[in-house]
Write a structure and sequence with these properties.
Number of helices: 22
Strand order of the largest sheet: 2-1-3-4-6-5
Largest sheet: 6 strands, parallel
CATH class of the largest domain: Alpha Beta
CATH superfamily of the largest domain: Thiamin diphosphate (ThDP)-binding fold, Pyr/PP domains
Structural class: alpha/beta
CATH architecture of the largest domain: 3-Layer(aba) Sandwich
Helix content: 40-55%
Radius of gyration: 25 Å
Distance between the termini: 84 Å
Number of domains: 3
């Protein structure tokens, strides 16, 4: 066969095998060297092909697709720095255990190390941040028996047992446009070449006995984060024990036991001391609150249920760190606890939660101007059931967790693997591509970090509302000691970093419809209207960094006063 036809056949085989595995979406960043692969992907019926001008944004779009669906998306780029631009998304996918297949085109061996254009060292480019790396060399018809296995293994490595990114480095020789010949025969009935069966560990009797022994007749809490199990199973265990569930704004599914305001409650020294937990069971990812995490570390016994391949114990205080399905663990433990329980412990938390929520309402009602906690609270209340909220790191994810009124029917996602603020708009776009309305809650710096994520966004077939809090700089730094210890000029220079950009004009330049609510009462309706209108829209709300610190303090003080009263 002609070498160009061999490359075309090789790539068509990869695309066909990935389709058999369950691939639904590919993200392509334009480039010449990747031509054989992107043509094969675009010609595969049934695949959604999303083209993005910027490789960095393309990587995060693929991440968002995997984050929302649990299935890998393929992101394809040309060689050189284009491949390097994917690194931030690869790191986040690694840390957050999100499946993605990164396919970077490369120069053939004879064009490496000779100063050829767009030729960099791409072997193991992402280091230990990938589950598997492979470079099969320039496509060779003599190796056609291995092509389906290569594609299927990439899928299997990306999906488990610890999901994450896989890197295929694919060198191609010119000419780059060929005609696919007959593909290597696949499995009958469209089956994948390799089948990966993720196991997930069931808790054995010894583990269940040990954990149950720690829980019996003790005061405890269940802390639930992303990946923390099904609400029904967690709620049943909480009911059997008479314990509260601390889950931030995700607390809407545990009526009567939900505690969303734990950050503010535990800032009150007397409440934290009097409600010290003897046992803390942490299911899934930990909360963003340093206060809650520090309080959890003071428990006599701490049980952490973590995803396979991870070790989550930032305080180094956990007595038990185990890999087990949280839903199965809770279901198994419920059987160990029968009969009536003392509801006094849970009732005390419920009363404190109610007092905190009333305090939040009272404080925010006294601010006619837009406040950042008020934006989070209004946003979460305004979105309809079935909406996915993607929260940026720094203040948005904290404000949602701390001040969002608890509710069910909304999924809250965030790039909390590496806790970075880059790629959030593109991640949200990827989430939105999986279907259903999506709202991204961003700070202004996160929005600016992913400006290229706006390229072509208005023309994509998705429903995405970007709610951007604009305080003209890095607002989270105003909460740090540096704000008091440095002079105003030096703090603004190195930490406040005002940008002076008209974010609404920036969004409008990319074709987005823009709304600018001016008062607190206008925020919720503006968000609801944007979602209802459909398409891609931006809601820009202006705040002040110093005033934001003050309103956070006011909210904490109000909760403390309610608890003292």
């Amino acid at each position: 066969m002609d070498p160009a036809d061999v490359a075309a056949t090789f790539c068509a085989t990869l695309a066909d095998e990935w389709w058999r595995d369950g691939l639904t979406d590919v993200v392509v960043a334009p480039g010449s060297r990747s031509t054989p692969l992107v043509l094969a992907l675009a010609d595969t019926a049934g695949l959604g092909v999303h083209v993005h001008h910027d490789e960095r944004a393309a990587g995060f779009m693929a991440l968002g697709l995997g984050l929302a669906s649990g299935r890998p998306a393929v992101v394809a780029t040309t060689s050189g720095t284009a491949a390097a631009e994917l690194h931030p998304a690869v790191v986040e996918a690694h840390q957050a255990r999100v499946p993605v297949i990164v396919a970077t085109a490369d120069r053939p061996a004879e064009l490496r190390d000779v100063g050829a254009p767009q030729a960099i060292a791409q072997t193991h480019l992402y280091g230990s941040a990938v589950r598997w790396f492979h470079d099969p060399g320039v496509p060779d018809d003599a190796a056609r028996a291995s092509w389906r296995s290569l594609a299927a293994r990439a899928w299997a490595e990306a999906t488990g047992p610890v999901p994450g990114p896989v890197h295929l480095n694919l060198p191609f020789r010119e000419p780059l446009v060929g005609t696919p010949g007959p593909l290597p025969e696949g499995r009958p009935n469209g089956a994948a070449w390799h089948r990966h069966r993720p196991g997930g560990r069931r808790g054995d009797r010894t583990l269940i006995d040990e954990v149950a022994g720690h829980l019996r007749d003790r005061r405890g809490v269940i802390v639930v984060g992303r990946g923390g199990g099904e609400q029904g199973a967690v709620g049943a265990l909480a009911g059997a024990l008479g314990w509260p569930v601390l889950a931030g704004c995700r607390s809407g599914g545990w009526s009567g036991r939900s505690v969303a305001a734990s950050d503010s409650l535990l800032r009150h020294p007397r409440f934290a001391a009097e409600h010290r937990a003897e046992v803390a069971v942490v299911l899934g990812e930990p909360p963003a609150s340093r206060v809650v995490n520090g309080w959890v570390d003071e428990a006599d016994v701490q049980v952490r249920v973590v995803p396979e391949g991870t070790w989550i114990d930032p305080g180094r205080r956990a007595g038990i760190v185990t890999v087990v399905d949280p839903t199965e663990l809770c279901a198994a433990l419920v059987d160990r606890f029968a009969g009536p329980v003392d509801e006094g412990w849970s009732a005390a938390w419920a009363a404190a939660e109610a007092a905190a929520q009333e305090a939040f309402d009272a404080v925010l009602a006294g601010h006619a101007e837009v406040t950042e906690p008020g934006v989070a609270r209004a946003l979460l209340a305004a979105v309809p059931d079935g909406t996915t909220v993607v929260a940026s790191s720094s203040m948005p994810v904290r404000d949602l967790e701390w001040y969002g009124r608890p509710r069910a029917g909304v999924d809250v996602l965030a790039n909390r693997g590496a806790n970075g603020i880059d790629g959030v708009t593109s991640t949200a776009a990827g989430v939105a591509l999986t279907g259903g309305p999506t709202v991204a809650h961003l700070g202004d710096i996160a929005f600016l970090h992913d400006t290229n994520g706006l390229l072509g966004l208005a023309g994509r077939p998705l429903d995405l509302t970007l709610v951007v809090v604009d305080n003209d700089g890095g607002g989270i730094f105003s909460f740090l000691a540096q704000r008091q210890e440095l002079g105003p000029a030096r703090f603004e220079q190195l930490f406040g970093t005002p940008h002076g950009v008209d974010l609404g004009a920036l969004a409008a330049a990319h074709g987005l419809a823009v709304t600018r609510p001016e008062t607190a009462t206008e925020v919720g309706p503006a968000v609801a209207e944007a979602i209802g209108a459909g398409g891609v829209r931006a809601v820009i709300v202006g705040t002040n960094r110093d005033a934001n610190v003050a309103v956070h303090r006011e909210l904490h003080d109000a909760v403390a006063a309610a608890l003292s009263g």
